[in-house]
Design a protein that fits this description.
alpha/beta; Nucleotidyltransferase, domain 5; 3 domains; five-stranded mixed β-sheet; globular
């Protein structure tokens, strides 16, 4: 058991997306653990005040109908401040996702959170550091060998090729051909049009998956209504070559269509 010298609040959030500054919370649960062994749990769905994108619902299962009569985040602020009072914070990838997402929601409600001096105990950080997921660890796991000369291009390249062969041999459910493997890997982010997810599939068309100005609009719609924005993305925006290429094609009236 963890020895606590002050309360620890373990919490998790579900939201309308993964943008911690812009997306809104739709589900929150906080488990407060006391040094003396007691615990308090608070859990609630949250009405985000805007439609929940289908790609988010596909992940967490929360629909617009489910949150229609639930409280807004600002209505939960007093209870959340009470349960977090004087406590350290914990979650899975909380430092990079849950804490900044919650902090942004509190800020919109006119409250600063978390209070200074709160420790953050992140279960994901512990997992990542204790159960390494780098190339050296993969080479040891799949090939039973120690990677000599790690972080040099040649050694890492040869090790990666050997790992791929070992993975195909190890997992019976993996495709054995490159086309199949490419499709299998792409299923990790099935809604992404590009590798970064700047564009996402929406009703079979490419749509904006970022920003406030055009988020949720189709690439076709923006190409007609605001072509200068696509030009900016190509010329001055900090976007990948893949994203820039999609914008160029859109300005020429060519739009990607999701197959299947």
């Amino acid at each position: 058991m963890i020895s606590l010298d002050r309360p620890l609040c373990v919490f998790d959030l579900e939201a309308t997306g993964t943008d911690v500054l812009q997306d809104r919370i739709v589900d929150v649960c906080v488990l407060r653990l006391e040094p003396g062994g007691g615990e308090t749990k608070f859990s609630s769905l949250v009405n985000p005040g805007s439609p929940i994108p289908k790609e988010a619902t596909d992940i967490h299962g929360i629909t617009d109908a489910m949150v229609a009569n639930e409280p807004r985040f600002k209505d939960l602020v007093p209870r959340l401040l009470e349960i977090f009072e004087g406590a350290d914070l914990s979650g899975f990838n909380a430092a990079k996702y849950d804490i900044p997402l919650m902090s942004a929601e509190f800020k919109r409600a006119g409250t600063d959170w978390p209070a200074p001096g709160r420790r953050v105990i992140d279960a994901y950080v512990i997992f990542a550091r204790q159960e390494r997921r780098d190339l050296t660890a993969a080479y040891k796991f799949y090939c039973g060998k120690t990677l000599e000369g790690a972080h040099r291009a040649e050694a890492d390249t040869l090790a990666t090729a050997e790992i791929l062969q070992a993975q195909v041999k190890r997992y019976a459910d993996l495709p054995k051909d490159s086309a199949g493997l490419g499709n299998w890997c792409a299923q990790t982010y099935p809604d992404r049009v590009d590798a970064e997810g700047k564009f996402i599939w929406k009703a079979g068309e490419a749509a904006f998956g970022f920003g406030n100005k055009h988020r949720g609009k189709s690439l076709r719609e923006v190409a007609v209504a605001d072509p200068s924005y696509l030009s900016w993305m190509i010329e001055k925006g900090n976007f990948s070559p893949e994203v820039a290429a999609l914008c160029r094609q859109a300005l020429l009236g060519k739009f990607p269509v999701k197959k299947g």
